[in-house]
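Subgroup meeting minutes
Present: P.N., E.W., G.H.
Scribe: E.W.

1. P.N. recapped why we're keeping a running log of single-chain structure predictions: easier to compare across weeks, and new members can see raw inputs and outputs side by side.
2. G.H. added today's entry (133 aa).
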Amino acid sequence: MKLFFFLLLVTATYPDASGQHPAPDTYNKKIKTYKSIAWTCFLGGFGLQISGAALGGLNTNYADKATSSEKTGAALVVAGSGLMLASVPFFIVLKQHKNKENQLSIKNQPVTLVKGGHLIRQSIPALTLCIGL
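Output recorded in log:
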């Protein structure tokens, strides 16, 4: 029974175990998605920080106890910082997918073919792999 659950876990975490690579268009879609998520989180967190600083800085009353707007402002600054930090993994994944997209691409490659005793240069679509040295 443990072996069954282990195999189920392995197949669930590695759905692409067939050895096939995703199409290059998949990386373009992922790049756009992660880019929008990352920038939305970053700019949303920045906006929360600015609004929290403005809300907390409106009161100049330096009494012993903080007012509710100061507490709310501090909470907004902390939430904004957390949201900005949450955008960092998305930027990291975005860079990884950009590297994968640069490695795999579909391009038209010129090929010399022999047809009827003549050499013909023709371009055909080919999957290219770029290896950085």
